[in-house]
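Subject: for your reference before the review

Hello V.,

The reviewers asked for a structural picture of the protein, and I figured it would be easier to keep everything in one thread rather than splitting it across files. Below is the amino acid sequence we used in the manuscript, unchanged from the supplementary table.
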Amino acid sequence: MNITNFLATIPLFKGLSQAQCDELAMIATDQEFAKGRTIFDEGEPGVGFFLVMTGLVKIYKLSPDGKEQIIHIFGPGEPFAEAAVFIGSSYPAHAMALADSRVLFLPRQGFINLINRHPELALNMLATLSLRLKKFATMP
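And here is what came back from the structure prediction:
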């Protein structure tokens, strides 16, 4: 799938023009991860965020005794590690491919530059993140 066309389908970027999706595609890096491969580890610098194109990505934490706690599993069309873009901190958890996966990486600085030119990007992200928070807050 073409990266620009894929980006246009993501709720995070709903309402963006074709030209704005093209700009996003120009800063994105297409990456592939084999099943079981680490995408990033907790504590690594949060240099950007990701979008799952195909496959599944597990976000998890490890307890001091090595037990794994799965925080969330993301599938096609879903973003993860977005907080790194806004906070500028390290990744708060680990990310691993649960299946052979293709993800797009959007670097923090490039994305912030786009937000400065197109503030609607930030509004879309706020709406998407707010819905995710609401979903987690209402989980039984």
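For the response letter, the relevant points are probably these. The helical segments are 3-8, 18-27, 83-87, 108-117, 120-137. The chain has one domain: 3-137.

Happy to draft the paragraph if you're swamped.

O.
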